[in-house]
Amino acid sequence: MEGFYFYWCSWACWIFATFLMKKTKARTMLAAAVLISIMLSIYHITIGVFSITLSFLFALVIAYYFITKKSGWKLVYMLLSMMMVSFVYAACHLLILIDPVWMLIDKTWMVAIMLTFVCLMLHHHFQERLLCIIAGSCQGEMMYAFVIKTYSFPYAIGSLAFLDELSLSCVCLALWSALENISVYADMVHKQMKRNKPL
């Protein structure tokens, strides 16, 4: 069922932000952004020949807002990495459309894993990975929609299927970052124990 992963991940994220995170401005903004995304997911607007969900536009605008705060080579690298993610996203969907036989796992999981792997290779910090995967996926969705439209196939940009893939990608990034932080914390504890070990 389309939308299952999106709604499940979104509510899990909202619960985590509301009840488990420290009371900061970032926590309030995250919880509000998740709720707004859920509410906007059922609404569409038509721009030209394309039907676009408001959740898609909201995610794209938020990602671009934070990306524009970067400058110099950091901005250039972010733009290049976003384009790489966009091409990977569009290429995966075109391959699935042309030859679905080669898929070994569910399409949603396959795309999410591919995007997560690319972002992990391109960036080292969670915030940059998150911005890259959101903006890159949105751009890739638009690229794919333009290609599909040339063949007169009906396609809604930012559908629940897209939101499923994006949500799973973000969750995979969060879990990987948590594992990285756990390993760093464990290493710090180990060194502290060795330092305090009596002679």
Can you give a write-up of this model?
The chain crosses the membrane at residues 5-21, 28-45, 51-68, 75-98, 104-123, 130-146, 166-186. InterPro entries: YphA_Bacsu (IPR014617). It holds the Pfam family YphA. Keywords: Membrane, Transmembrane, Transmembrane helix. The chain is mainly alpha-helical and 199 residues long. The chain has one domain (4-185). The protein is 75% helix and 5% strand. The protein has helices at residues 4-19, 25-40, 54-67, 72-98, 107-122, 126-150, 160-195, and strands at residues 44-47, 50-53, 156-157. The chain has a 3-stranded mixed sheet. Strand 1 and strand 2 form a beta hairpin.
By oligomeric state, this entry counts as: single chain
On the 0-100 scale, what is the average pLDDT? 88
Secondary-structure class: mainly alpha
Coarse morphology: globular
Total helices: the number is 7
Helix content: over 70%
Transmembrane segments: 5-21, 28-45, 51-68, 75-98, 104-123, 130-146, 166-186
Pfam families: YphA
Keywords: Membrane, Transmembrane, Transmembrane helix
Q: What's the layout of helices and strands?
A:
Elements: H1 4-19, H2 25-40, E1 44-47, E2 50-53, H3 54-67, H4 72-98, H5 107-122, H6 126-150, E3 156-157, H7 160-195
Parallel strand pairs: 2-3
Antiparallel strand pairs: 1-2
Helix pairs in contact: 1-2, 1-7, 2-3, 3-6, 4-5, 4-6, 5-6, 5-7, 6-7
Features:
199 residues, mainly alpha, three-stranded mixed sheet, 75% helix, globular, membrane
Summarize the structure.
With 199 residues, this protein is mainly alpha-helical. It has helices spanning 4-19, 25-40, 54-67, 72-98, 107-122, 126-150, 160-195, and strands at 44-47, 50-53, 156-157. Keywords: Membrane, Transmembrane, Transmembrane helix.
